[in-house]
Specification:
binds 4-amino-1,4-dioxobutan-2-aminium adenosine-5'-monophosphate, alpha+beta, five-stranded mixed β-barrel, binds magnesium ion, 16 strands, 31% helix, eight-stranded mixed beta sheet, elongated, 463 residues
Length: 463
């Protein structure tokens, strides 16, 4: 008999003969009857299986423990118990896979830290089931948004020879024998015999190639894995994370901010509309203010201010006695305590900050007429901090080359990027949204390692 997903079974009217397959969450019972809670990952909910000892062999019932995989046939009947409309009165149960006694997911109330050590099995828990379903729905929301707004899904390479952010946080890609490296007379590694004939790395961002797409196709977005070899052991950083990078021709700073705000609101609204059961579960178990926070982001507007205005607010706070660990002054990179003050205490809503000092931002950002600031934007979110980084791009060839020279970025690697500014240059802008930071916000989870199936962080590449 073909099985029906539990999410669909729970919507059906009583009376049908059905088959359900899934993993046992709990089993309790008396001498005459066993109640099994079965989950198949299609929903946070379980379906109750009523197994009468008269109908189901003792030997079978003994094998049905938490974690076991079973196939159940029977009649869908109205449930007498509270909490569910229907349950299955089993006529036949087949144990597809028994579960060994050391199944790591059987204890309730384990810490997320412990569950991370069992990341291969934690997907079977309620919390990770909810997070993974939301993660999937967010990916769909993102493609939906861009497709409907005329952006092309553009595939940028993962292996690259350029460092987009210029921060030197790249993972090298090589097929060279590391024990026997060919070197030149100055002791530098000779890459001519390496796979690509030059040093290559995993990309930190698809932006540079994304700009090639946007300046030909109008509007594109990327959505793929990116890599940062930064030794940041924080609940907000991964070495491998997914980034969404739209890039748009003929877009100025205001249009860029409008896009950032509209796009995030679309994603949050999508979660509220499509993931109600999972969000309700997370709101109950993880963070009781989650739903309220999500709704407030959709309903309110984001605060927009310049970096200079932000510094003035922080300086005033310091003058009024607010203590920060790091001192505040114009030109500094904001620390997370400063961002949180602005977002969570001062404005109490998402903030889009713009016009940062040139020195703390990447080389490609459009320089303002003051010569000191650039048209960069960061979107700062409650609990998360920076969720988006983006900018208007410097489209003027001479100014861009000036920046590249000043920062001593090797020019010979950038020729193809600079060509966009030589052949029909155009004003354009784009941003990068960290997918896992979005999922953190939408789920209320506290640690970025718990919103991606198999996190990659310093000293951790298990599974
Ligand atoms: O601010 P970032 O470094 O910007 C760029 O890479 C630009 N090239 C994007 C663009 O304009 N197309 O990174 C963008 C976002 C951050 O705001 C953050 O959400 C996320 O990527 N991010 C990380 N997420 C998880 N772990 C890390 N180590 C991250 N680094 C950045
Ligand atoms: Mg950034």
């Amino acid at each position: 008999m073909k099985h029906t997903r539990i999410i669909d079974l729970l919507q059906m009217q009583p009376g049908a003969q059905v088959c359900a397959k899934g993993w046992v969450r709990t089993k309790r019972g008396s001498k005459s009857v066993n109640f099994i809670a079965l989950n198949d990952g299609s929903t946070i909910k379980t379906i109750q299986i009523v197994a009468d000892v008269e109908k189901i062999a003792d030997e079978t019932l003994r094998q049905i423990t938490t974690g076991a995989c079973i196939s159940v046939e029977g009649e869908l009947v109205a449930s007498l118990g509270s909490g569910q409309a229907v349950e299955i009165q089993a006529t036949r149960i087949e144990v597809l896979g028994t579960c060994a006694a050391d199944y790591p997911m059987q204890k309730k109330g384990q810490t997320f830290e412990t569950m991370r050590q069992h990341a291969h099995m934690r997907l079977r828990s309620n919390t990770f089931g909810a997070v993974m379903r939301i993660r999937h729905n967010m990916a769909i929301a993102i493609h939906d948004y861009f497709h409907r707004h005329g952006f092309l899904y553009f595939h940028t390479p993962i292996i690259t020879a350029s460092d987009c952010e210029g921060a030197g946080q790249m993972f090298q890609v090589t097929t060279k024998n590391l024990y026997n490296l060919k070197k030149d007379e100055d002791g530098r590694i000779d890459y001519s015999d390496d796979f690509f004939g030059k040093p290559t790395s995993l990309t930190v961002s698809g932006q540079l190639e994304g700009e090639l797409g946007a300046t030909a196709l109008g509007a594109i977005y990327t959505f793929g894995p990116t890599f940062r070899a930064e030794n940041s052991n924080t609940p907000r950083h991964l070495a491998e994370f997914w980034m969404i990078e739209p890039e748009v021709a003929f877009c100025d700073l205001t249009a860029l901010m409008d896009l950032e705000e509209d796009f995030i609101k679309h994603c949050v609204r999508w979660a509220l509309d499509h993931c109600a059961d999972d969000l309700e579960f997370l709101n109950k178990m993880i963070d009781q203010t989650l739903l309220e926070r999500l709704r407030s982001v959709v309903e309110g507007s984001f605060e927009r201010l310049t970096y200079t205005e932000g510094i003035a607010i922080l300086e005033k706070a310091v003058a009024d006695g607010r203590k920060f660990e790091f001192p505040v002054s114009w030109g500094m990179d904001l620390a997370s305590e400063h961002e949180r003050y602005l977002v969570e205490e001062y404005f109490r809503k998402p903030v889009i900050m713009t016009d940062y000092p040139k020195a703390i931002k990447a080389f490609y950002m459009k320089i303002n007429d003051d010569g000191k600031t650039v048209q960069g934007t960061d979107v700062l979110f409650p609990q998360i901090g920076e969720i988006i980084g983006g900018s208007v791009r410097e489209e003027n060839y001479d100014k861009l080359v000036g920046e590249i020279k000043e920062r001593q970025i090797p020019m010979k690697d950038m020729w193809w990027y600079l060509d966009t500014r030589r052949f029909g240059t155009c004003p354009h802008a784009g941003f990068g949204l960290g997918f896992e930071r979005l999922i953190l916000f939408i789920t209320g989870m506290q640690n970025i390692r718990d919103v991606i199936p198999f996190p990659r962080t310093p000293k951790n590449a298990e599974f």
